[in-house]
TrEMBL record:
It comes from Georgenia yuyongxinii. One of its GO terms (cellular component) is ATP-binding cassette (ABC) transporter complex. One of its GO terms (molecular function) is ATP hydrolysis activity. This is ABC transporter ATP-binding protein. It comes from the Bacteria. InterPro entries: AAA+_ATPase, ABC_SmlMolc_Importer, ABC_transporter-like_ATP-bd, ABC_transporter-like_CS, Mo/tungstate-bd_C_term_dom, P-loop_NTPase, PotA_ATP-bd, Transp-assoc_OB_typ2. The keyword Translocase applies.
Amino acid sequence: SRQERAGRLEGDLQIRDVTKTFGAHTAVDDLTVTIPEGSFFALLGPSGCGKTTTLRMVAGLEEPTAGEIWLGRQDVTRLKPYRRPINTVFQNYALFPHLDIFENVAFGLRRRGIKNVRAQVEDMLGLVELAGYGDRRPSELSGGQQQRVALARALINQPKVLLLDEPLGALDLKLRRQMQIELKRIQTEVGLTFLHVTHDQEEAMTMADTIAVMNNGRIEQMGSPAELYDRPATTFVANFLGQCNLLRATAAPAGDDVALTVEGRRWAVPAARSSAAGTDVWVGVRPEKLRLTAAAGTAAPAAGGAGTTGSAVEPGVPAGANAVEGVVTDTSYVGVSTQYLVRVPWGQELVVFEQNAGVEGPVEPGTDVVVHFDGGHGFVLDAGGDGVRG
Ligand code: ATP
């Protein structure tokens, strides 16, 4: 019907100017965000940034000091938790130990007085790939399986929004990675809004279609994982999502480019990749976008001898690349890639990742190199006189 369609279009979860204070401490600071219906949305940030408090206000476990929370056309700000079409999956599963898996999943239906639950429970167990586990006790399942029961138990209530509070925090790394893929598959299959809270950037990037990075009770930046990684808007976001080299520079417009002076060196980055308004800036570049080249006038430092091939350091810096000379201070072989630290003349150590594609050995510490990158791989942020070195 028309009403149903209008409802679907307006199923977004809206957090409007929400503030939460505990005594003198502001945990959530005038937060406004719309979480589109059907999206997998992650609130990502360090411990204490206010993400759990935000989630608890959406669940109704905490009342905002100011502001409103809307689900579609309904103001849910003052609704009791059980009156909200919202369910939460916690890190500690909270399964009933004395009930078997079937009854754990059936719980929400039974409480509502629904009699014929078998088909729905079997459906849910199938969705989370636990068909046939119905008569086991929670203690007879692995952590990952228990987490999937918790998910089934929440989903069977057909909430409009599912809240996930560090749901995979108790699992080991390998299982966590499997469950990330699994959660994403289930979200796509059921099409519900998932609001996921985590401090784990890899977890957020693997699962979410939109990430809001929180810091000090506010959202620093919101976007797709790729947008946040490729074009962070602040140094906080640049550092929180993966590793990033940040170099202090002065900037001047130069046609389609921003001309940069980095400790006397002339660099350029496309103007489209700069969000800086002032002249005092940070130049950011991810470790895997930096390349190492043999220093000019020195032989390629290969194990086989001067000038032979077989070194990971290729001679010559491409024309137009942004470059700085340095010396390798640390080499760490990490299988698929090698991580280098390269000290540049002003004392900063740049992190460089080189893919280990061939059989050539890594560049030894002490080797003189040139570090360079294509300007299109960098980005420029306002430094705003914060005076902190990268
Ligand atoms: P974590 O990842 O550690 O859970 P978080 O980002 O989820 O961190 P919150 O739990 O939302 O952070 O807490 C935000 C701030 O509010 C913290 O400084 C915390 O100490 C404070 N806080 C949270 N709950 C309360 C409370 N009930 N009473 C007092 N202060 C609180």
